[in-house]
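Slide 14.
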Amino acid sequence: MTFDLQETLKSKRALRRELAARPVAEKLRMLDALRERALAIRPTKPAPGSGVLRAAPPPYGKSDQRA
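Slide 15: predicted structure.
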């Protein structure tokens, strides 16, 4: 498979023009579909830092105070 940068850029411009020409209602429907897809995908990703063990911070209190 060969990649022609000029052809790719031409295709992207055409797609952007096509999307810009669509009615607002259709664009909103597309956004709703993307949002539903994102919500469906989200639970499958682990939360950032969920596999990281963290040490408890050192206690600060009476033992640190000087008389």
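Speaker note: The mean pLDDT is 84.
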